[in-house]
């Protein structure tokens, strides 16, 4: 049974494993960069809103669609968890976008250090982000009860990263198997 790739699923012409791996690496890097950009945007929104409470960003459409309602909530710092474990003023209790910038920057650095780390370290980090994403989706839907466009964009990036890393791991395993032959 032949291992499926996104190319066979989309009925695209086949690529070599090296080309396919390179494509996934580029997608991974672009998604990581997008995560940094969205996180920086979210951070800027929070800072501006904190200093100017009358500021209304474009993502605040109404009470049901409001990024500031979500981001300025108690879950907008340290994922709503850090302040319960440490002091409210702890250096660890940062705005969520700060963690996002650090996380996506780390994802960008991983392949620079050693490309093979995407399949292992990148996979572990992205899997951890999926757990955080599901937790924050639950908080957004059932506690804050609003739709945060910035948050949803981050969730989409995280799920896309997860899928990309899964495909990359598949290519990495097939390349390793070919090398052993």
UniProtKB/TrEMBL annotation:
<dbReference type="GO" id="GO:0005789">
    <property type="term" value="C:endoplasmic reticulum membrane"/>
</dbReference>
<keyword id="KW-0560">Oxidoreductase</keyword>
<feature type="transmembrane region" description="Helical">
    <location>
        <begin position="96"/>
        <end position="113"/>
    </location>
</feature>
<keyword id="KW-0472">Membrane</keyword>
<dbReference type="GO" id="GO:0042373">
    <property type="term" value="P:vitamin K metabolic process"/>
</dbReference>
<feature type="transmembrane region" description="Helical">
    <location>
        <begin position="26"/>
        <end position="48"/>
    </location>
</feature>
<dbReference type="Pfam" id="PF07884">
    <property type="entry name" value="VKOR"/>
</dbReference>
<dbReference type="GO" id="GO:0047057">
    <property type="term" value="F:vitamin-K-epoxide reductase (warfarin-sensitive) activity"/>
</dbReference>
<feature type="transmembrane region" description="Helical">
    <location>
        <begin position="119"/>
        <end position="140"/>
    </location>
</feature>
<dbReference type="InterPro" id="IPR042406">
    <property type="entry name" value="VKORC1/VKORC1L1"/>
</dbReference>
<feature type="domain" description="Vitamin K epoxide reductase">
    <location>
        <begin position="21"/>
        <end position="169"/>
    </location>
</feature>
<keyword id="KW-1015">Disulfide bond</keyword>
<keyword id="KW-1133">Transmembrane helix</keyword>
<keyword id="KW-0676">Redox-active center</keyword>
<keyword id="KW-0812">Transmembrane</keyword>
<feature type="transmembrane region" description="Helical">
    <location>
        <begin position="147"/>
        <end position="168"/>
    </location>
</feature>
<keyword id="KW-0874">Quinone</keyword>
<dbReference type="InterPro" id="IPR012932">
    <property type="entry name" value="VKOR"/>
</dbReference>
<protein>
    <recommendedName>
        <fullName>vitamin-K-epoxide reductase (warfarin-sensitive)</fullName>
        <ecNumber>1.17.4.4</ecNumber>
    </recommendedName>
</protein>
<dbReference type="GO" id="GO:0048038">
    <property type="term" value="F:quinone binding"/>
</dbReference>
<comment type="similarity">
    <text>Belongs to the VKOR family.</text>
</comment>
<keyword id="KW-0256">Endoplasmic reticulum</keyword>
<dbReference type="InterPro" id="IPR038354">
    <property type="entry name" value="VKOR_sf"/>
</dbReference>
